Amino acid sequence: MPISVQASEGHLMSFEVNLRLILVSGKTQDFIFSPNDSAMDIAKHVFDNWPLGWEEEQVSSASILRLIFQGRFLHGNVTLGALKLPPGRTTVMHLVARETLPEPNSHGQRNREKTAESNCCLLL
C-alpha cells in the first residue's frame, strides 16, 4: 500500500518512488509510493485521498482512474518496480478518467492488420 498521502518537503528514502500526477486540466500533485505498488493501488490511494484543489476533477470511482506513463496506459497490476522507475526521484505520470483500456499491444496488432489488408493487389 502507498507510503503516504503526499510527498513531504524532505528528501525521499532510496526505496520510495515520488510520482507527480498531472490531470488533463494541468493540475499536479506529488505522491510517494513503494516500488511494490501497482497502478490499481495508486488509483485507489489517489481516489481515497483526493487532493484539495482537484475538486472539479473528482470522479465517482477509483476504478475509472488510469495512469499514463511514457504515452502508454498502465494496466492495473503493473507495479512501479516493474517499470524500473528510479527510486528517490520524481517520475511524472498523467492521471485520467477512462472506463476501459485498450488491450496490451492492440494498437500494434491493428496496424499489422491494416498493413496486411493494403498489401494485397489484383493484376488484370
From TrEMBL:
Localization per Swiss-Prot or TrEMBL: Cell membrane
Name of this protein: Ubiquitin-like protein
Domain Ubiquitin-like: from-to ranges: 17-95
Keyword line: Cell membrane, Lipoprotein, Membrane, Methylation, Palmitate, Prenylation
The UniProt record lists the keyword Iron: no
First-listed, main subcellular location of the protein, grouped into a coarse class: membrane
Stored InterPro entries: MUB, Ubiquitin-like_dom, Ubiquitin-like_domsf, UBL3-like, UBL3-like_ubiquitin_dom, UBL3_Ubl_met
Any Pfam family matching the protein: Rad60-SLD_2
One GO CC term on file: plasma membrane
Domain of life from the UniProt record: Eukaryota
Membrane topology: Lipid-anchor
